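Entry for zinc ion complex. Fields follow.
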Amino acid sequence: MVTAALRMFMELGMVQKFRIDYETLCRWLLTVRKNYRMVLYHNWRHAFNVCQCMFAMLTTAGFQDTLTEVEILALIVGCVCHDLDHRGTNNAFQAKTGSALSLLYGTSATLEHHHFNHAVMILQSEGHNIFSNLSSREYSDLMQLLKQSILATDLTLYFENRNTFFELVNNGEYNWNVKAHRDMCRSMLMTACDLGAVTKPWEISRKVAELVTNEFFEQGDRERSELKLTPSAIFDRNRKDELPGLQMEWIDGICSPLYETLVKLNPKLQPMLDTIQINRSKWEELNNERQCAPPSEAPPPPQAPPHCSGENAAPCSPPLVDTGTAPCCGAATHMAAGPSRPAS
Ligand SMILES: [Zn+2]
């Protein structure tokens, strides 16, 4: 994955344009990888996948031709660094536990501030400054854009901004020459990549949903044992059978509106939306099967009702879905601040 990440920097022309020292870039990438923890989901593999998704969107969908080179560098570095030192618990958990991170950064975008500061710390470590050949103007612009990119992965910010962005695009008023519009669009691209697992082929998408869910369950276990709270559905392993319904809510409420809008802005992104729709139908099938399944201790019915099978299966009863917090990738994280681990 480190080699593939290197290749992405090369193919985007970043190494050449910003005269990034190749050995420094290798060292920086290895250190970034080392500064992701061995949590189930928010680990180096997730960071790499988000970066790869951005690479595909920039190149295949042609954003590469619209965005400036500094913007592209900020996005790609932002993706690689956006969950640095994630501990597998979310912002709400930081607030509820009064963690060191929430005391340090406050309760707004707690983790995202930490991820950005951690990224800066690595860049400032000896032999890690991949930006050393940028002009002072470029460097200053880049750091501002990098901070924006990483903070944008807080889903709270996404919800604050998305309606304005959706309206601009839907009304045909989006304008690449307006700085505020570009800022919003880059933030939406970061979210689209962070949630990109939902756009992957079914087997991958399902596997990733299970990884996220298992990380959430570990947080839920701690909420139960340490905080004496009953976790909400997505964090409660006793309600794991609700996953298909929760995934449908996640797709309908959070993911689809974003990708639909991005497709309006750039039709080349249509394949992402198509795959989301396929995945949603798979979750729906699983949800219907679950609702049609007999209770485990009861004898099976002689025959499943006809509407519980086949392509047009409908639920046997109202879906048992949670209406609380949706699973989120960008909004999840930590507990105690651990030691920094730059350089290797
Ligand atoms: Zn993430």
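NOTE: The chain has 15 helices and no strands.
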